[in-house]
Amino acid sequence: MDFFARQAQVRTSTHLLVGLFALAIVAIVVAVDVLVLLVFGWHWTADPVGYRHRLLVFSTLGTLALICGCALFRIQTLSEGGSAVAEGVGGIPVPPDVDDAQLKQLRNVVEEVAIASGTPVPDIYVMPQEAGINAFAAGYSPSDAAICVTQGCLDHLTRDELQGVIAHEFSHVLNGDMRLNIRLMGLLFGIMALSVIGRQFAWFDASATWSESERQLSRKAFSWMAGLALIVIGSIGYFFGRLIQSAVARERESLADASAVQFTRQTAGIAGALKKIAVIPEGSLLRVANRHEVAHMMFGEVDAFNSWFATHPPLMQRIRTLEPWFRAQELEKLKQTLTPPPPEDHTDDVQPEEKKELPPLEWPGAAVVAAPAIVDASVAAAAATPVATAPQQGAFQHASATHQSIPASLIRAARQPEPALALSLALAVSAHEDVRPAQQRLIADALGDDVWSAVEALVLDEQSLTPSQRMPLVALSLPALKQLAPGRLETLRGTLDAVVNVDPRVELDEYCLVRLLRMYLREAAKPNSARAEGQKKLPACRDSVALVCAVVAVYGSDDDAGARRAWQAAMNEAFPGGIFTWQTLPVEWQVQFDRALDDLDGLLPVAKEIVIQSLLSAIRADGVVTSTEKELLRVVCASLHCPVPQQPETRAA
């Protein structure tokens, strides 16, 4: 599947639907203006035209202020990110060290998908009272995301099916759906505020007593009718808002299904989950009271909606998009044989005490997996991607092997707040013994001697890691780091920079780790400040593209001539027909590289695709892909908030 092209297609239709949402709000404002004119515009004044104009201005601004104010209030209540949404629907956090086999399996699946997709591990929640099969992802950015699954997922799904559901939710994270979902929740809340105010008007003035004068009764009746009109206007606005919200959700769900196929490299998992939704009595339904507020974020329908309000395509349509040969009659057979599966005895669900070597992976030639002719184009493209860029063994198998190979002591440290802080610093400590004393003083002065002792205890284990293991540890540690107090997080960020800058010989792996940590911690500290979709075009960032491609070319090549060839190939991919002059990479390139990545993050999504393809051209220029190149590519993709292309590792850095 062409992630960026499919994303651009869905984004175009989403923009249209969001535009309709804005038109619906305009229509509500006009309706309220008409109501105000009918109620108050008949009063006689010396300047009736001016009076009505002022009345309309007051009404328009007041209505917009009410809708926008309530929407902003609701969005602000969700400003803590995905965790606030998950807890708002009854989600309970999954602790890092659990004995329950189902929860342990869930945590390992989520961590594997995060490693495979190049995103930080989200907060993990379970809705224990919900027997239906459902899940959702929420948050403003990958760094503050939360994934919440129902108990029904744990009770009914196999490991592969659970993996398919989680991959579907991760695609919402990578497709940028979460910020849009939170804003739609806020706008609907703002529209509903009109109905709430109308009910207050009608309730307060509905009661009349015989002792009241005719004038008082008339005023109460008038007020009651105005309240009733506001209820009608608010309800109609909410009706159309829900219609548009549902249409947006259906577009995004189709993309998420296709993306899940791309992540997992198989359709059986997500298709199996959809089939079980179709046959178990609870389906995907939720019982929580505010389920409609999050309906557009869920894996399946939360209620028995009609087709207008459905937030997802029909189940059979989703299943047959994935498996065109499937027939509805087969659901009855599945229903007869279905029993809740026990948690599977998967080797990666229990961390080994000793470090294991990463098993070798074989990368066959570019054989193509045939896709049925009638399958949905996006899913067919995902299934037909050459295995040269999507390994036959799959990114998940590689992620699982990486997950298993990390020492258990480091996994435990990554899952607890204070040990995760020490682990982050241990990853940044230099391998050069001559700078260790200065780094020790910095850490001890900023955070205390006890923290340095914890860092020192982790350094030996950490230095035995390969780059393919170090980067996932950063992703694994983020949920624990987010539990630290804001002041302590800020101290950690400053200390990381100081520790790295002690040594003028900044190693590439140290830079990559600190860059990722800084970015994750910054976005996690202020979730709603994460950058929205960029608007820049590629020519505006030509210098930044040249620098980023130069860094990848230099660190991925054995000599200067090879670096120049790789850089030239990348620039030709980004700017066909252009004339480029090679410039030697500056000695202290890290600050410029940081600025370049921040600049490129402001690009349009289609332009980001060109940048990623250019980097792949540089990486492939010498016919091999090193672990160093993969590490840099992961950092660039994370900085651009893009999925990591799947690349085989053919020789060591």
Index terms:
653 residues; globular; Zincin-like; 4 domains; 4-stranded mixed beta sheet; mainly alpha; disordered C terminus; 62% helix; 4 strands
Produce the secondary structure layout.
Elements: H1 3-40, H2 48-77, H3 82-88, E1 92-93, H4 101-117, E2 123-127, E3 135-138, E4 146-150, H5 151-156, H6 159-174, H7 177-205, H8 214-264, H9 268-279, H10 315-322, H11 329-337, H12 377-383, H13 395-405, H14 408-414, H15 417-428, H16 436-447, H17 449-463, H18 467-481, H19 486-502, H20 508-525, H21 542-555, H22 560-574, H23 590-600, H24 605-620, H25 627-639
Parallel strand pairs: 2-4
Antiparallel strand pairs: 1-2, 3-4
Describe it.
The chain is an all-alpha fold and 653 residues long. The protein folds into four domains: 3-81 and 179-255, no CATH class; 83-168 and 261-337, Metalloproteases ("zincins"), catalytic domain (Zincin-like), CATH 3.30.2010.10; 406-529, no CATH class; 538-639. Helix content is 62%, strand content 2%. It is built from 25 helices and four strands. The chain has helices at residues 3-40, 48-77, 82-88, 101-117, 151-156, 159-174, 177-205, 214-264, 268-279, 315-322, 329-337, 377-383, 395-405, 408-414, 417-428, 436-447, 449-463, 467-481, 486-502, 508-525, 542-555, 560-574, 590-600, 605-620, 627-639; strands spanning 92-93, 123-127, 135-138, 146-150. The protein has a four-stranded mixed β-sheet, with helices on both faces. Strand 3 and strand 4 (146-150) form a beta hairpin. The chain is globular. The model is unreliable at 350-393 and 648-653 (pLDDT under 50).
